[in-house]
Structure formats: structure tokens, C-alpha cells
Amino acid sequence: MTVTKKRPIGILISGRGSNMGALIAACAAADYPARIAMVISNNPDAPGLESARAAGLATKAIDHRPFGRDRAAHERAIDATLRDAGVEVVCLAGYMRLLTPFLTQAWAGRMLNIHPSLLPSFPGLHTHERALHAGVRLHGCTVHMVTEAMDEGPIIGQAAVPVLHGDTPDTLAARILTQEHLLYPAALRRVLMPDTQPQATADALLCV
Ligand code: GRF
């Protein structure tokens, strides 16, 4: 099996970390071009931190609360931890803090986010409720580069799912989460190996 040169990535989480779990699983493959050098959470009680530790990864809780309103100081601590770990690319995976220009500029072109909607539709929170309310028939998820504006930035990849009659925000979220776990590793691979063949499924989704 080919052993690919693995680039060190950092993952920022705030909660359960299932997308982080998908990246951990992807990184376990010898031919995947990344390894996880650091997992940081702003929430010391995030269940994802425990999963990361159980997977043998370096972790650090950097609680935002002691920093009060000084978001940039919190971000400087995050930035220093990422750099000390030798991180080259950062993946936000359910990281629930708004970023200041300090962090977005420091990692411009090297920071990805996953968002549970087909951007530019439904940036922000409560995307599944809003999609159901709007009556869209296709919904999904997006991996994009992080820029200063929230949930904007160049789109790297998207996955669409049908909105089924009778869906609730929870059933829709679950259908999309399955796709998030496929999309994030594929999108990160594409960023790290831009010369590889783009992947796309041949079938279009048609929903009436
Ligand atoms: C995901 O839906 C992701 O798209 C959004 O936050 C959620 C995080 O879930 N940004 P998890 O912590 O990865 O399970």
C-alpha cells in the first residue's frame, strides 16, 4: 500500500465531535494525506475531547470564558497551540465560536469549516428548521474555506439530500450528518491533494 506523506492538521471542536471522528477514521488510512496533530476545544466538557483522547490524540481545552470579551486573546492562545503542534491546516468541526479577523487572517486559505446547509442558503444556526420552514426539497452540507464573514468563503464541496415528507429537524439532521461524515474527509483530501481527480457521484437528485 502506498504511504502518503501525511500533513499535520488541527481540529477545533465545541461538542460531540462526530465530524472529528470521521476525520480520525480517514486519517487512519495509510493513503490519506493528513494526520491529526492537535484537537482543541473551547468547551472543556466537550464529549469530543474525550473521544479524541481515547483515540490517542493530543488535545487541549482552551476555555473561552476566562478571556471574557477578549476574543482575540482567546484566539491567540489557540493559534499558539496550533503552531506549537506544527499544524498546517485547521478543520473547524462543530466549533461554535465566531472567529475574529485575527484567526481567519492567520489561517487564510488553510482553515476549513463544515456547515449543515447547501451554502449560500441558510448560513448561521438552526439550518434544518429553517430549511423545513422554507419548504426546500433539497438540503445538505457544505465544506468551505473560512473567511472573515461567517459561513462564507470558497466552497470546496457539498452533499445534497432529499427533504422527505414528514421530516423533522432531527430526521433531516441525521440524514445530513451521514453525508457530512463522507464529505469532510473527501473535501480535506481535495485541499491537500488538489491535483487528484475531483470526485462526484454520477446521479443527480431529483425531488418533486
Ligand atoms: C455539524 O452539523 C456541523 O455541520 C456543524 O456542527 C455540527 C457538529 O457536529 N458545524 P459534530 O460535533 O461534528 O458531531
From TrEMBL:
PROSITE patterns: PROKAR_LIPOPROTEIN (PS51257). Its EC number is 2.1.2.2. The active site is at H115 (proton donor). GO terms for molecular function: phosphoribosylglycinamide formyltransferase activity. Residues 11-188 form the Formyl transferase N-terminal domain. It catalyses: N(1)-(5-phospho-beta-D-ribosyl)glycinamide + (6R)-10-formyltetrahydrofolate = N(2)-formyl-N(1)-(5-phospho-beta-D-ribosyl)glycinamide + (6S)-5,6,7,8-tetrahydrofolate + H(+). The record marks D151 as: Raises pKa of active site His. Pfam families: Formyl_trans_N. (6R)-10-formyltetrahydrofolate binds at R71, M96, R97, L98, L99, N113. NCBIfam families: PurN. This is Phosphoribosylglycinamide formyltransferase. It comes from Novacetimonas maltaceti.
